[in-house]
Amino acid sequence: MKKALIQLHLSVFLAGFTGILGKLITLNEGLLVWYRLLFTIITLYVIFRWKKMLTKLSFRQIVPIGLTGIVIALHWLFFYGSIKYSNVSIAVVCFSLTSLFTAILDPLINRYRLDKTELLLSGLTLCGIILIFHFDAEYRTGIILGIISSLCAALFTIFNKRLISKYDTPTITFYELSVGWLALTLALPFYLHVFPQPLQLPSVSDLFYLLILSWLCTVCLYMLLMNALTKISPFTVNLTFNLEPLYSIVMAFILFHENKQLTPAFYAGLGCILLSVVLQMTRVSRTIQKAA
Q: What is the pTM of this model?
């Protein structure tokens, strides 16, 4: 359990860079996610083939894995759309709603009783989002996109929990992202027609940031996260990821001076979110101590 918690927190730390890189990359969210997925699956294929870690699956086995991959592609699409329509701080705070969606959807999908404590902790997160949404009206489009992104993230974690009991981590990760990239490739012409931007190669700086995003913040992050999910519940994973805004916001303040754009309501909302994380981590720690 301790090893899984370390892997989880390391993946959260890496996730803190994704919003910053999304802001630095000048491509729109559709092309950004398309390139991120492309570079990631090429890297995974080389690594997994070299180490002989890939398992061949039938079409019937690939379908549920691929559908989960489409969900994560949608999560990234809405997440980076939220950044483009607001800023890094708003987008990553909205991502904290993932824990609320998980607390509600996981029991419904996997058919077990709702956990009242999880709902109360998620309610704190919801209060934080409401504070920000009510007072920061100019960012409402970005907030809505961020909320949809968090819903997709919750579904991804819940579905992944099922998959890792049947297949190994490398196989799941590769097939998920490959199908996600294929689905986005098919949808990209329509997407670029609705949200116009010419199909283009990334600039040198964009390429550099995309490689960091793909190698560190995708390949390394998801391998760590998949391993953590074998020992830790989806709710704990998603609530712990509420720490991601803290890392991203500090970096956004330093790099982009976003603190000048935010109101006191934002900080009050962020306080509610951080409180929910602290309470859940205390709860998990007590469970570990009792089991020891």
A: 0.85
Q: Which residues contact 211 (CB under 8 A, 6 or more apart)?
A: 39
Rounded-to-integer distance, Cα 88 and Cα 66, Å = 29
- Structural domain boundaries in the chain: 2-291
Continuous segment of H or E residues that includes residue 171: helix 169-194
pLDDT in tens, the chain (292 residues): 778 888 888 898 898 899 999 999 999 999 999 999 999 999 999 998 898 888 889 999 999 999 999 999 999 999 999 999 888 988 888 887 887 788 889 888 988 887 778 778 878 877 887 777 665 567 888 989 999 999 999 999 899 888 988 888 889 989 999 999 999 999 998 888 887 777 778 999 999 999 999 999 988 887 888 788 778 877 677 667 767 777 888 888 888 888 776 778 778 887 887 788 778 767 766 765 665 5
